[in-house]
Specification:
It is a single chain. This protein has 583 residues and is of the alpha+beta class. It folds into three domains: 59-99 and 246-351, Elongation Factor Tu (Ef-tu), domain 3 (Beta Barrel); 106-235, Helix Hairpins (Orthogonal Bundle), CATH 1.10.287; 429-583, Immunoglobulins (Immunoglobulin-like), CATH 2.60.40.10. It has helices at residues 2-26, 106-170, 175-235, 281-284, 434-437, and strands at residues 45-51, 53-75, 81-85, 93-94, 99-103, 238-240, 245-250, 257-258, 265-280, 292-297, 303-307, 310-311, 321-329, 340-357, 362-364, 367-374, 378-389, 393-398, 405-409, 418-422, 479-480, 489-492, 499-500, 503-511, 522-529, 532-538, 540-541, 547-553, 558-567, 573-582.
Length: 583
C-alpha cells in the first residue's frame, strides 16, 4: 500500500509540473503579478474628497424606540357574574368612577334581602330581651317590698317574744304563751330569709336579661353591617373605571361569565406618553436625565425636541441595554402607544474639535482608518482615534491635525500610495473597482479576447427612513481578486429595504464580467458598526436568476457597513462593501 501511495503522489506532482510548464511556456501567457500597483493618470481611483474641519461638534446616537402610555391598567370585576352590558368601545374617553360594564345582579339582590331580613330579626330579638329586662327589674322591686314587710313583722315578733320572756320570769304570763311568742319570732326570721333569697334571685334574673339584651344589641349591629355589606357588594355589579383615560381594548364580550381577577377592559392615559428606547451600554455613560433628545415619528414625518426624564439603572444581561425614557405632553393625541419613533440622544459636545465626514472613517472592529490625500493625487491610510460622532460628523482625537483632505466616498479597494481622482458630486463613481484594475500587470484582457466589458453602475440603498424605505441610490462596485474573466459584479437591488423589529431583508444581484446573471454563486453577508457586529449569514437564491436575498438582524439604528462575498463553484471569491444609515 505504501508503494501505491508513493506512485500516486509522484504522478500528481508530474501532472502539476506539466500543466505549469504548458500554462507559462507553451501558451505564451504571462502569470499575473497581483502585487503590482496602478500607475498613470488613466488608472486613478475615482473618489470624493473632503477637507478635515475644525469647529464645534456634538455627539449623538440614534436608537429606534417606542411609545408607551403614561399609565396603563386593566379594569377587573370584583364579583363573579355574567356581563350584561359593556357600553364603551376602544377610543372612548372614560372618567374615574364611570360605569364601563354591568353584571347580572339577581343573586346579589337575593343576598341583600336575606341580610336585611336577618337584621330585622335581630331587632325583634332585641326588643324581646329589652322587655325581659324590664320584667326582671319589676320583680326586683316587688321582692324588695316583700322583704321590707317580712323584716317589719319579724321585728315585731322579736319584741313580743322578748316581752313575754320577761313576763314569764315574773309569772305574769303562762309558759305556753311565751313559747308561742318565741315561735312566732322564729317564723318571722324565716320569712325575712326567704324574702331576701327571692330578691337575690330576681336580681340574678335581671343580670341575665341585661346580658341577653347586650347580645341582642350585638346581633342587631352585625345584622345591619351584613345588610350594608350586601348592598355594597350588590353595587359591584357596576364595574367602574379606576382612573381617567382612553379605552384601548375590550378584553371580553357581553354574555361572558367573569370572575374577580379577569380583566375586561384596558384603559390608558395618553395626555402624556412615555418615549422609551433600549440604549446599548456603551452609550449610556453619555446620556443623563436632562440630556436633549430629538424625536422623529413615522406618521407625518415630523419631529420635536425634548429631554430625557429617566435612565433605568439596570442593564439587561442578555441584550446589554438599558431603558432610557422621555415623558412628553401628547396634545391632540398625535403620539399613539405602540408606535415606533427614532430617538437621537445628545451624548456630549466640544466647541473646538477636529472632525471629518462620517463616511470618511472606515472601521474594522475597534480600529478606525481614514484615507488621507498626499502629494496632490495619492492617498495613504492613517489610523485615527475617534471621539464624539453623529449622523454627519466624527470627531478625530488623534491622527489628524486639521486642513488635510480625506476620502469620503470610493475608498473601497484603495491601497497605500494609490493614485486617486476627485470627482464632482454629480458624477457617479461607477468604476471604483474596475478602473482600479485597469493597467495592472496580470489583469489585462487575454490576447485575442478584446477589451474587458465596462461594469455598469449598480444601485445600493441607504436605510434612512424609519420603516426601511429606500433613500437616494448610491454606487458600490465589487472588487474581485481573481482574473478579469472570473471577476463578479455585486450590487444591491433598487427595491426598498423593509425593517421589521431590527431585521432587514437585503437583495443582491450577482453578475459576471459580461453582465450575465450568475445563479450558482455562494453569497455570504455580514454587517458591522462601531462596537457591534452581525454574524455572517448565507443568502438564499431568489426567483430571478442572479438575485439573492439575505435577512440580517441589524439590531439598532446607526451607520452599518455590509460586506458581501460571492464565490462561484469554479473561481475565487469577490467581495463588495456597502454603507448603510439604518434608521
Amino acid at each position: 500500500m505504501r508503494i501505491i501511495r508513493t506512485v500516486i503522489v509522484l504522478a500528481l506532482v508530474a501532472a502539476a509540473g506539466t500543466w505549469a510548464y504548458y500554462a507559462n511556456m507553451v501558451s505564451g501567457k504571462q502569470a499575473m503579478d497581483m502585487s503590482a500597483r496602478v500607475s498613470g493618470a488613466a488608472s486613478a481611483f475615482p473618489v470624493t474628497l473632503a477637507s478635515v474641519e475644525r469647529g464645534p461638534v456634538w455627539g449623538s446616537v440614534v436608537y429606534t424606540g417606542s411609545i408607551a402610555a403614561y399609565t396603563e391598567e386593566d379594569v377587573y370585576p370584583r364579583v363573579t357574574g355574567r356581563i350584561l352590558e359593556m357600553a364603551v368601545y376602544p377610543g372612548d374617553l372614560v372618567r374615574a368612577g364611570q360605569v364601563v360594564a354591568r353584571l347580572d345582579d339577581l343573586e346579589l339582590i337575593s343576598r341583600v334581602r336575606e341580610a336585611e331580613a336577618m337584621a330585622v330579626n335581630a331587632l325583634s330579638n332585641r326588643s324581646q330581651m329589652e322587655a325581659d329586662v324590664a320584667v326582671t327589674r319589676h320583680g326586683i322591686a316587688q321582692m324588695e317590698k316583700e322583704l321590707a314587710v317580712a323584716e317589719a313583722e319579724s321585728g315585731y315578733q322579736q319584741s313580743v317574744a322578748a316581752r313575754d320572756e320577761q313576763l314569764l320570769a315574773k309569772g305574769a304570763v303562762a309558759k305556753q304563751e311565751a313559747e308561742s311568742s318565741r315561735a312566732m319570732a322564729v317564723a318571722g326570721q324565716a320569712k325575712v330569709q326567704a324574702a331576701r333569697a327571692r330578691l337575690e334571685q330576681a336580681k340574678a334574673m335581671e343580670s341575665s336579661a341585661q346580658r341577653k339584651l347586650e347580645a341582642a344589641d350585638a346581633m342587631v349591629a352585625q345584622g345591619q353591617a351584613q345588610a350594608k355589606t350586601a348592598q355594597v357588594v350588590r353595587d359591584y355589579v357596576n364595574i367602574r373605571a379606576t382612573t381617567s383615560g382612553y379605552v384601548v381594548k375590550r378584553l371580553v364580550a357581553p354574555g361572558v361569565l367573569v370572575q374577580p381577577g379577569t380583566p375586561v377592559l384596558k384603559i390608558a392615559q395618553m395626555d402624556k406618553v412615555r418615549l422609551q428606547a433600549n440604549v446599548g451600554e456603551r452609550d449610556l455613560s453619555g446620556i443623563r436625565v436632562g440630556s436633549p433628545v430629538t424625536v422623529s415619528t413615522t406618521g407625518d414625518g415630523g419631529g420635536f425636541t425634548t429631554k430625557v426624564t429617566s435612565v433605568v439603572p439596570f442593564v439587561d444581561p442578555g441584550a446589554r441595554t438599558a431603558v432610557v425614557e422621555a415623558v412628553v405632553e401628547n396634545t391632540g393625541r398625535r403620539l399613539l402607544p405602540g408606535q415606533y419613533v427614532q430617538m437621537q440622544f445628545v451624548t456630549g459636545g466640544r466647541q473646538d474639535a477636529v472632525m471629518v465626514p462620517r463616511r470618511a472613517v472606515a472601521r474594522m472592529g475597534e480600529k478606525a482608518t481614514v484615507w488621507v490625500l498626499k502629494d496632490g493625487d495619492r492617498v495613504e491610510p492613517r489610523e485615527v482615534v475617534t471621539g464624539l460622532e453623529n449622523s454627519e460628523r466624527v470627531e478625530i482625537l488623534k491622527g489628524l491635525q486639521g486642513g488635510e483632505r480625506v476620502v469620503t466616498m470610493g475608498h473601497e479597494g484603495l491601497y497605500a500610495d494609490a493614485r486617486v481622482s476627485d470627482v464632482s458630486a454629480g458624477t457617479p463613481a461607477s468604476q471604483e473597482a474596475t478602473d482600479a484594475h485597469k493597467g495592472m500587470p496580470g489583469m489585462e484582457p487575454p490576447p485575442g479576447k478584446g477589451k474587458q466589458p465596462e461594469m455598469k453602475p449598480e444601485k445600493t440603498t441607504d436605510l434612512r427612513d424609519m420603516a426601511g424605505q429606500a433613500a437616494g441610490p448610491q454606487m458600490a462596485q465589487a472588487g474581485g481578486g481573481a482574473a478579469s474573466a472570473g471577476t463578479l459584479q455585486i450590487a444591491l437591488a433598487s427595491n426598498p429595504v423593509k425593517l421589521s423589529s431590527g431585521k432587514a431583508t437585503l437583495r443582491f444581484e450577482v453578475k459576471d464580467a459580461t453582465g450575465a446573471p450568475v445563479p450558482d454563486a455562494k453569497v455570504e453577508v455580514s454587517a458591522v458598526m462601531p462596537g457591534m457586529s452581525v454574524p455572517k449569514v448565507t443568502a438564499r437564491a431568489a426567483k430571478d436568476p442572479g438575485a439573492y436575498e439575505a435577512t440580517v438582524n441589524l439590531g439598532m439604528a446607526g451607520a452599518w457597513t455590509v460586506e458581501v462575498t460571492a464565490t462561484r463553484p469554479q473561481g475565487g471569491p469577490t467581495s463588495a462593501k456597502f454603507n448603510f444609515e439604518a434608521k
